[in-house]
Amino acid sequence: MKLKTITNYLCLPLFLIYTASISAAEVKPLQYEDVFDLEFVSDPQPDAAGKRVVFVRNWMDKQTDRRRSTLWLSTVDGKSLQPLTDKDINASSPRWSPDQNRLAYIVNGQIHVKWLDTGSSSQLGQLASSPSNISWSPDGHWLAFSMFTEKNMQAPITLAGKPVGADWAKPAIYIDNKQYRVDGAGYTKLGFRHIYIMSSNGGSAIQLTEGDYNHSGDISWSLDSKSLYFSTNRQPDWQSKPVNTEIYKLDISTRKLIALTERDGPDSKPTLSPDGKLIAYVGYDDRKLGHQANRLYVMNLDGSNKRNLTEDLDRAIDSFQWQANSKGLYIQYDSEGAGILASQSLSGKRSTLVSDLGGGSYSRPYSGGQFSAADTGIIAYTQMSAKHPAELAIVSKGKTKTITDFNADLVFNRSISKVEEIWYSSTVDKRNLQGWVMYPPNFDPSKQYPLILEIHGGPHTAYGPQFAMELQLMAAKGYVVLYTNPRGSTSYGEDFANLIHHNYPSTDFNDLMDGVDAVIAKGFIDEKQLFVTGGSGGGVLTAWIVGHTDRFAAAVSVKPVINWFSFVLNADMYSYFSQYWFPALPWQNPEHYLKYSPISYVGNVTTPTMLMTGEADYRTPISETEQFYQALQLQGVETAMVRIPEASHSIYSRPSNLMAKTAYILYWFDKYRSDKAK
Fold first, then answer.
1. Max Cα–Cα distance, the chain, nearest Å
2. Terminus of the chain with fewer CB atoms < 10 Å: N or C?
3. Distances (CA, A) of 183 to 41, 526, 573, 620
4. Sign of CA dihedral 386, 391, 394, 400
5. Backbone angles phi, psi at 32, to 5 degrees
6. Which of these, 453, 416, 472, lies nearest to 529 by C-alpha position?
7. What's the pLDDT tens digit per position in 402-456?
8. Are residues 555 and 610 in contact, defined by beta-carbon separation less than 8 angstroms?
9. Predicted confidence (pLDDT) per residue in 51-74, tens digit
10. pTM metric for this prediction
11. 3-state class percentages of the chain: helix first, strand second, coil last, to nearest 5
């Protein structure tokens, strides 16, 4: 019977087979387990001739519950696409050698080189820690990189009298360094990041910098391969001035360091022009504001004649690269939620090349992305839309071509929700505000739907028309989802971002409510079924919202700050937060801290509120969640607490945690839905 069916099926015309297949397996809404089908492109690197592009292909390993990465190589026309590394190893940071015959990259914390003419590859040396920012010397003989170097320190106390073979408690841990723990890494070892070089033929790593300072970020070589340029903070009180980095020149033979910048503020990413005459870099004058946007500068090799090329742009420069003729640069920035790639001349002229740069974040719709250009002017970049995670795209002679389609299977088998841009007016000051509405599958505007307001973190970040798995899963369950960029968001200029400086949360609450009202005005939202959630800064605003309105049927506050006083004294970046987010230290102005803390308004809360945080979160520690949870319990408000074991602030970094996060949010909202969509 089966053979007959197959035989008859083979005799059918192709279009009838296709139609029958669609009928047999209809496209379904996204499911939680589809998280493991996501793939995205990162770190594209074209060769100098603009004929080939190596890039990182990221995918989700269901067995290990980890994101994995492999290197792939494509021709710029997309006709040839092949893997360079095995899927069972994690490879990243591919960089072409000057002769274009070799690729350096990082595998499991070690530098490897692949010879493209033979296909052979080898690990170079044996490093004590994982390197970063690898950079080839122009003569091809050396690789420069930065690496953490542990500093041995004897404990001040040694206990005597322990018998041989005795089982005593673990020794006490003595800490006296200011930055002693970091989110995602936990309690740190004592040590500092230094600059190293290693022969491109292998051997031992040679340490070039010394001292109790961190030397990190991009590394650039002089044309004669005798000097390095990088940024670091070598001020005596550097731990108390976390952003005050300068650009240095290092003579490799003498180890002499010369500072090329000296202002109060960060200067970083020094990059030598192809003709060797100028250095481009980014930075700003520190004014102790919550958001300060990087400007693009150029200067002479000795640090003279510094020029700001992008002051008129009023956007933060995220990345840049010199054009081959040394007369201009390619720059990357966000504007109104979109990722922009533009050409910037030294004379000041600027033109947009693409406006769909994106990637990196696939759980929530954050802006971002990466690019790199060949000497021929061909640009490879990560292209994103609201329909799929980042793919590889090429810009050549003003035309854009998408090269990869790694998410075709997911898009083909699942219904990806439509995302629509909206603009609305703030009731606070009539400013135009931007947002996006995501519609559930088979949306019918004549029906009534529940609405989820999803709020971004930061608070100085931006959402955009990007793929967002968490929000897509919400829409797949029948919700209309609204996400916006209220005041405080980036990509609209410094003034807009700093409207909440020393004033957060405040009227950003009104901006969010205005967005909800704008969607309700469209006529398809059931006003009795409004829900709100957000993470980090979005968790702060969620907790603030339930203390200031009862219009939402339920809320989920993810990794929030509840008490600014305790936050500053518990967060990993306390030296930064205390200086840039507040007018004084907590004990100097406790009234200010409490005025803007959601805990101060917990007595007003009647909305059923769930809290969720990773147990290893050192950015917004779980003690913040516990404060609000216990306060709500004392207040008699329906509440629940979800703790994610071993998770840092980046809950989504393990695929199953992304699933669990979204599933718990929807469980809580479904619990308080009065009915299903009509």
1. 88
2. N
3. 25, 40, 9, 9
4. negative
5. -55, -40
6. 453
7. 999 999 999 999 999 999 999 999 999 999 999 999 999 999 999 999 999 999 9
8. yes
9. 999 999 999 999 999 999 999 999
10. 0.94
11. 20, 35, 45
